[in-house]
Amino acid sequence: MGRSPCCSKEGLNRGAWTASEDKILTDYIKEHGEGSWRNLPKRAGLKRCGKSCRLRWLNYLRPDIKRGNISADEEDLIIRLHQLLGNRWSLIAGRLPGRTDNEIKNYWNTHLSKRVDDCRRKSAAGASKNSKSKQATGGNGNGTFSANVVRTKATRCSKIFINPDLCDMNREAVPPASSKINGLLPAVMSESDTEGTDPISLDFTLDFNVGEFCLSDLLSSDFCDVDELSYGNAFGSSPDQPLGLSFSDEMLKCGFESPVVGSIS
DNA sequence: AACTAGCTCAACCGCCTGCTC
DNA sequence: AGAGCAGGCGGTTGAGCTAGT
C-alpha cells in the first residue's frame, strides 16, 4: 500500500525561506505553540510542507538558538560526544544548549571529521608499532570511531520509575564543580548538579538504552587523544578521566542504570 | 574580470518509531 | 493486533559564497 506522503507537494514552496514566511511561522508558533506540524501550514497560511515548517522552526527560528562561532569548548565536547554516541546528532545537540542537531551535523562534516580523521591517522601511524596490542582493544579499522560508540536507541521515554534511595545515593556523589566549564554541561550532569543542591539530572541516562552500554568499557576505552587536536582540555580532565567527564566512585560502583530502575514503555 | 574548485549550511528526503484508534 | 498518522532522525543535496588561478 505504501505510506502516504506527509503532505501534497503540489503547489508548495520549496527551497530557501523568505523573511515573510519566517515571520508568519514565528508569529503562528508564538500564538499557538509548537506541534500539529501537518496542519500548521494550512492554518498559518503557509505554502510549505509541515515537515519543512518544523525544520525551519527547530533549526533556525527558535528564539533560544545560538548561531555560529562554535567555541573550542563546544568543539571538544562534540568530538567527545561523537566518539561516545556516534552520529546521534540529536543526542549530541541535546548536550550543547542552543545548538541544533543539523548545525552540529554540518559542523562535524565540514570541520571536525577531517581533523579527527587526521588525528586518527596520526595515532594509527604512531600506534602501528604496537598494533598487535591495540587490536585487542577493539578498533574496527574502518577509519571511524565506532569502536566505543554507545548504541543508543532513540526511544521515547514516557514512563519511568525513579528509585529515591538510589537518587539520594547519587546526590551524595556530586562531581566536582570543575566539571562544568563555560556553561557547557558534561553529558552526565545537569547544571544543578554542580551546585549539589538538586536531585541529579537523569536525562542523560534516559537517552540511552543503558542495557547495551557498559560503562566500564567506556572508561577503559582507548580514545583518540583529543588534546592532539590542540584545543586544550576543555573540562580540565586528567588522564584518569577519559572523555573529560567526572564519575564518582559511587557512580562507577552502582553503574549508570541504577538511578533509573523503571522501564521504557 | 572571468572562471573554477572547494566550502558551508539550509533544506529536503526517506526511513523509523511511538501513539492512537 | 495492526493499520495509519505524526513527529523525529540521520544522510544527502544543491545553492550561494569565497578563495585561488
UniProtKB/TrEMBL annotation:
Transmembrane segments: none annotated. It is found in: Nucleus. PROSITE patterns: HTH_MYB, MYB_LIKE. Signal peptide: none annotated. Residues 9-61, 62-116 form the HTH myb-type domain. SUPFAM superfamilies: Homeodomain-like (SSF46689). InterPro entries: Homeodomain-like_sf, Myb_dom, Myb_TF_plants, SANT/Myb. Residues 124-136 have a biased composition (Low complexity). Keywords: Activator, DNA-binding, Nucleus, Repeat, Transcription, Transcription regulation. Residues 9-61, 62-112 form the Myb-like domain. CDD domains: SANT (cd00167). It comes from the Eukaryota. One of its GO terms (cellular component) is nucleus. GO terms for molecular function: DNA binding. The keyword Phosphoprotein does not apply. The keyword Cell inner membrane does not apply. Residues 123-145 are annotated as: Disordered. PANTHER family: TRANSCRIPTION FACTOR MYB8-RELATED-RELATED, TRANSCRIPTION REPRESSOR MYB6-LIKE. This is MYB DOMAIN PROTEIN 123, TRANSPARENT TESTA 2. It comes from Hibiscus trionum.
